[in-house]
Amino acid sequence: MNKFQYYTGGIKATIPKGYVSLTSFLSKIRNPNPATLVLLGSISDASREGDKKTKTLLKNKLPFFTPSVIVEDGKPRRYENIASFTGLAPIDFDGFDNIDQANDCKHWLFEQNTEVICAYLSPSRLGVKALVLIPVCNEVEEFQDYYRGLTKKYRDDFHIKQFDTAPQNAILPLFYAYDKDVLIRDNAVTFVDKVLKPVYVPSEVVMNVESDKPRIDILVNKFFERCHNIVDNGHPQFRSACIMLGSLVPHYVNEIDALAYTESAIRSNGYMISKHPFETYYKTAKWAIDVGMKSPYTL
Predict the structure, then answer these.
(1) How many other C-beta atoms lie within 10 A of the C-beta of residue 154?
(2) 160 pLDDT above the threshold of 60
(3) How many other CB atoms are found less than 10 A from the CB of residue 24?
(4) Which end of the chain is more exposed for a tag (fewer CB within 10 A), N or C?
(5) Cβ pair 117, 188 in contact under 8 A
(6) Distance between CA 273 and CA 267 in Å, rounded?
(7) Which residues contact 267 (CB under 8 A, 6 or more apart)?
(8) Separation CA 290–CA 73 (nearest Å)
(9) Are the CB atoms for 77 and 66 separated by under 8 Å?
(10) Are 29 and 42 in contact, with CB atoms under 8 Å apart?
């Protein structure tokens, strides 16, 4: 939990530039350099004006972090290159109507939930970001079990519709933000409530968990890789990737998880978000997964 990696050079940068301590990360959120402060002001203005394309283009100039994992030095930011987990999980609330609503959420989140290490406003000032203390995981699936627990608590139990499930992707970029009033807790309590992934396997298909799971993980990672590599002509490529993912749903991947994967892939691709609103791609993803489910893949 003492350090994690940072990246510069835009969303297409995949190799970590180095490490930052949690203490330094929080200090920078409270006191950014002047150039970054100007950039963040422009992002906030674009968000307030509803200019999503400009907001995304500007946001991609910010440094970003992967607080949940450490990838192998010199290797790209991909699941297969995860070397270890940090015990941190980012959570994100997005889409408030104004900064007052976001501030209310920030204070409630920090004051009423002891697993929250820090809470601060997002770059747009219309969202809230936080880091939560969880056990140090050994694999991606364990991290996602804890994230499903966080989703149950914040989205389902507390009915906070602004809760974003995209950070369930352990290597999703966390962009830099500024909040001089960031809230920090030194004695956070570890969040330990897992929600295990439901297993839906029709009776006529029996999956050998030990031998087949790695092969399914490779296919899911291939979905993320295909989406990550989209830099033009995005819609048909994304549609094709989602149909492939949907073909895994009847036997090997839970439909809820598949939709969460698509949400993560959309939000982490700066090119796609700059071309169309998130909702457009998400509607395509749901349609494509349904199409893929009609032609189920079997190992």
Answers:
(1) 22
(2) yes
(3) 12
(4) C
(5) yes
(6) 7
(7) 164, 166, 172, 273, 278
(8) 39
(9) yes
(10) no
Per-residue burial over 89-118, b = 16 or more CB atoms within 10 Å of its CB, e = otherwise:
bbbbbbebeeeebbbebbeebbeebebbbb
**Token reading at 275:** 């071309």
pLDDT in tens, 209-242: 456 777 888 888 889 888 988 888 788 899 999 9
Instruction: Please check the confidence at residue 280 and state whether its pLDDT lies above 60.
Output: yes
Q: Which tens digit of pLDDT belongs to each residue from 255-276?
A: 888 888 898 888 888 788 878 8
Q: Tell the burial category of 291 from Cβ atoms under 10 Å away from its Cβ (0-12, 13-18, 19+).
A: middle
Residue type, 142: E
What band does 204 get if pLDDT is binned at 50, 70 and 90?
very low
The SS3 assignment for 63 reads coil
